[in-house]
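Throughout our pipeline, every protein is held as a single compact record rather than as scattered files. This encoding replaces a full spatial description with a residue-level series of whole-number codes. The remainder of this section carries one protein's record, kept here as part of the documentation.
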Amino acid sequence: MNAIWVLARSAYESRLQYTASHAVRTVASVIFGMIYISIWQGIGEQHALEGYGRAGMVAYMAFNQVILWTTFTSHGLGLEDRVRTGQIALDLVRPLNLFVFAAGREAGSIAYNALFTALPLYVLYTFLFGLPVPSDPFVWLRTIAALVMAAYTAICISYCIGVTALWTVESRWFSLLNYSLNFVLSGFLMPIAWMPHWLQAVARLSPYPVFNDIPTRTYLGHAAPEALLAPLVWCVLLSFACIAATSAVRRKVEVQGG
């Protein structure tokens, strides 16, 4: 546990060196968030937006934009570059499990994103769009639990993508596919309940609702406590997947060029 803390703190502190760059990114997030929200405000003037209403849909989109960066991970947790340079061979002889090593570093980056992107967005959208602030402490606890599990799920998926670089060398397209599926199936662009029935079924069989749909509906009070069972199951399943992937990596280490 101490090793994970050291790795996370190191990644967090390294991010602090690029505060100006990340400030620009935060401004861009604000602009895109306002565009999405404005679109739904316009739609809400002509349609009832069943289950949410105009104000509820604005809150849904605003909170989605707030939590986006808490589940946004680096491409393959940086493992592709470590395979290309041969650093992966040294990583595997460390006394620390490769998954723990990669996940610990990414946790620091996610913590930075939460503090310097998600939190400012939350405060701003609360004032600009009246984003509701739950008064029930249990809603807060369930929302935090959902976000922690969402972040862990994102780390696990990115890790499984990253280790494929040992077989494909270039795994970036897996990340692009993952991001595309995430935007469609996570409920980021619209509530999953509004999708066609066949697409709802696909979404609910995937881990993607863990990222936006479940945390946002939990925060807004639209989800029962039992909704947290799905992200818990995915965390367990993906943990086993990461363990299996690490075992496979140890049996096959290929470094480009030798």
